[in-house]
Amino acid sequence: MIETRQLTKRYGDLIAVDHIDLKLAEGDVFGFIGPNGSGKTTTMRMLATLLNPDYGEAYVCGKSIYTHPQEIRRLVGYMPDFFGVYDDMSVIEYLEFFAAAYRIDGHARRKICEEKLELVDMSFKRDAMVNQLSRGQTQRIGLARVLLHEPQVLLLDEPASGLDPRARIEIRNLLKRLGELKKTVIVSSHILPELADVCTRVGMIEKGVLIVDGYVNEVMKKARESQMLEVCVTENSEQAAALLEQHDDVARVSMQGETIEVTLNQNVEDYSFIPQMMFEAGYRLTLFREEEVNLETAFMELTRGKQQ
Hints:
By secondary structure, the chain is an alpha/beta fold. It has two domains: 2-222, P-loop containing nucleotide triphosphate hydrolases (Rossmann fold); 225-292, Alpha-Beta Plaits. It has ten helices and 14 strands. The protein has helices spanning 40-47, 69-75, 91-101, 106-119, 135-147, 165-180, 216-223, 237-245, 273-280, 295-303, and strands at residues 2-11, 14-24, 29-33, 55-60, 63-64, 76-79, 153-157, 184-189, 201-206, 209-215, 228-233, 250-256, 259-264, 285-290. The longest helix is centred in the middle third of the chain and has 16 residues, at 165-180. It is elongated.
């Protein structure tokens, strides 16, 4: 559905996007992760045919951004970080205006607008003026707008930016629903927890370079090549830690308060020996778990030392 080959954009001496290769299939929800100014928005604007690359190629639904920009725009729904609304329109009028711009038949127009309002849980605001909506409600109306023409590809640039915690949760739930519709979605964010349980794939970009690209479970595994475990015992934690450190499969042991952090050697996946050792030595376990790797820790691990 989306493919880029050496996609590059320069602004003078600044390389905003540096030879990005990316390939997304139908139904992929791709989390585009990176700090502000890393190249996320520039990449999405090129895919939306709103910005011409300086080098490279990109295809959306098999069509080149150079030779078929108008066709791509019919297939893409692009939602920028901030967008304007018309002050003198109600929500339903706002959607019908854009539905008409998409040349949606007049008889079907109202029904489609009502369906999209229901999809984004905004039916209760259908007659409200758009300039009276909260930031979170405006974002949801923006999502409804880009869905009007049933695009196959969605490009959502920081859809949760500037929202309060409740609105962020609502937008995250909406993104999950879009994934269930089998649309190909690129959603960018610099707030990593927002994407953790939404995306099937993630890409990590820094200073225009796509450093990491893969399915979420693969990225998590790559970020932590060695298993790390947390162990707590009822007493004598330091002695227990010293005992664990002697095992051949243990790379290192450290203490975090009363918690023993055990890092295994690479490629060691079976850690059943730990509770067995503790039991045989007379220790009673109160905690034994594998340390979770989230997108934030994965990003820090995988980008460390890559861009200076």
